[in-house]
Write a structure and sequence with these properties.
The complex is a heterodimer. By secondary structure, chain A is mainly beta. Chain A has a single domain (about 1-155), classed as Beta Barrel (Lipocalin). Chain A contains one helix and nine strands. Chain A has an eight-stranded antiparallel β-barrel. In chain A, a hairpin with a 2-residue loop joins strand 6 (about 85-100) and strand 7. The longest helix of chain A has 11 residues, at about 50-60. A twelve-stranded antiparallel barrel of chain B has the order 2-3-4-5-7-8-9-10-11-12-13-14. A two-stranded antiparallel sheet of chain B has the order 1-6. The longest helix of chain B is centred in the N-terminal third of the chain and has 16 residues, at about 1-15. Chain B is globular and about 80 Å long. The two termini of chain B are about 40 Å apart. The chains are: A mainly beta, B mainly beta.
Chain lengths: ~160, ~300
């Protein structure tokens, strides 16, 4: 499991780039089946500008009502017997929930086993519209419709 | 407790490895529950109890973040009761211009200048305690505010000599605020006002007040705000009625517009706490706005 996974997201438009980091992603991976569950607290995302962070929490993800985002599912294909240093391209299939709305997601990524720990990395896109995150017309040019997300985590056996 | 969680988790892991035929959904839901059991939610401060550093006139618990310059232009127009000739007061504007800077996320300093009584201000504001959620949750925010004000009006020859100390007054406040829900935030604000010089000999130099303020969000970027300050020290001849202000906050990206109606003419603490000129009963209230903009000076 992990308690300090890193989630980073990036919204890029010609007018403004907005990014945020969260180093408190938690996750559990069942090493026998490849089933997993990950969770991040929305309020633990930190932005370059304090006002962005406030708007993110207050106006967009509404973290008072929807405090966390989760992704749960199964890694395919699952190989429980990776050798030390070996790395596989895999797909994580499951349900991604954010802003209270669950969507089926398939996320491509890499998994490896080294130094007695599972290491995962993945990149994916989240469309704001898929999760009913509304952007008002005045700032529509500042916020991308699809947000690039990347995730890194090291999961140690419990 | 810790031990019990471990046993719970291991029993689940055991279930899967024995290959018990659980429905896919049920088992992954179980993993998320197990995750919630295993990971304590972090202690996080509650953000945006109020949209701006003021509720209407009075300070809220909020301060500019570290490295942020918060610039406010505020106006109060003449009384609504002044009628069409003065366009219900719009011909008669008073301005306040203020710069507040966040030295840290919890400590800010500011200066301001008011048209009203040509008053200068210097202030400090510190977040002593922050409301938070999680294992070390704290139920409310406590912010301290102290301001020194200097009246800049010229005095007539008759009043000379006029020592500078007469121009000074001071206000100290504790803002006790709580975000009750996403929509509702409330504040209780005890204030102490000291005036070095008062117009009539019967007036108290020191006044205690207790204020109540709040906001209710009607939309993600729109809220109703109000505040009321009750005199705990009797004032001379009831010359001033207590300060009562109602308004709205409208947020547009980097700006917050606060539009309101208040019975206080001045926008600095001595004036709106101790000496509000108008009365709501007679319509002697003032329309006004605060417009704030933040600049990230240092990131």
């Amino acid at each position: 499991m992990t308690r300090d996974g890193h989630v980073h997201f990036f919204s890029s438009t010609p007018i403004e780039d907005i990014e945020a980091d969260n180093h408190q992603m938690s996750g559990l991976l069942d090493a026998s089946t490849g089933e997993f569950a990950f969770q991040v607290q929305m309020r633990a995302f930190h932005f370059e500008k304090a006002l962005m962070e406030e708007h993110f929490n207050e106006n967009y993800v509404e973290s008072e009502s929807h405090p966390s985002a989760t992704f749960q599912g199964t890694i395919e294909p699952w190989d429980p017997d990776l050798k030390n240093g070996e790395s596989h391209d895999v797909v994580a299939k499951g349900t991604f929930e954010c802003h209270g709305i669950a969507q089926a997601q398939e996320i491509r990524g890499k998994i490896s086993w080294s130094d007695e720990a599972w290491r995962i990395e993945a990149e994916f896109e989240v469309a704001l519209a898929d999760h009913s995150i509304d952007v008002p017309a005045v700032v529509r040019d500042n916020i991308a419709e699809r947000i690039d997300v990347d995730v890194h985590a090291t999961l140690l056996p419990r | 407790m810790k031990y019990r969680r471990h046993t719970f988790l291991w029993s689940q892991v055991l279930c899967w490895s024995l290959g018990l035929m659980w429905a896919h959904d049920a088992s992954s839901q179980g993993l998320l529950d197990a995750l919630n059991e295993a990971v304590e939610e972090p202690t996080l401060p509650v953000s945006a109890t109020f949209k701006d550093t003021r509720i209407v006139n009075v300070q809220s618990n909020e301060t500019p973040a570290e490295g942020v310059l918060h610039f406010v232009i505020a106006h109060r127009f003449g009384t609504l009761s002044s009628g069409a000739y003065d366009l219900w007061g719009l011909d008669n504007a008073q301005m306040r211009m203020a710069f507040d800077y966040g030295i840290t996320d919890r400590f800010a300093v500011g200066v301001a200048r008011n048209t009203y009584q040509k008053t200068y201000e210097a202030n400090v504001k510190a977040r002593l305690l922050r409301q938070s959620t999680g294992p070390d949750a704290f139920p409310l925010s406590v912010t301290w505010y102290s301001v020194a004000m200097a009246n800049g009006l010229r005095v007539s020859a008759l009043e000379e000599p006029y020592p500078f100390t007469r121009r000074m007054s001071y206000v100290h406040q504790a803002v006790l605020a709580r975000k009750m829900s996403e929509d509702l935030s409330i504040a209780v604000i005890p204030s102490f006002v000291h005036r070095n010089f008062v117009e009539s000999s019967g007036e108290a130099h020191d006044l205690f007040l207790v204020g109540f303020g709040g906001r209710y969000k009607l939309g993600p970027r729109f809220s109703l705000n109000g505040e009321y300050h009750h005199f705990l020290t009797p004032t001379f001849g009831d010359a001033f009625s207590p300060s009562l202000s109602l308004g709205v906050d409208i947020e547009t990206g980097g700006h917050v517009f606060q539009l309101h109606i208040t019975n206080a003419r001045g926008m600095f603490e001595r004036s709106f706490l101790a000496e509000p000129l108008g009365t709501w009963r007679d319509g002697n209230v003032y329309f006004g706005f605060n417009l704030s903009r933040v600049f990230t000076v240092k990131s």
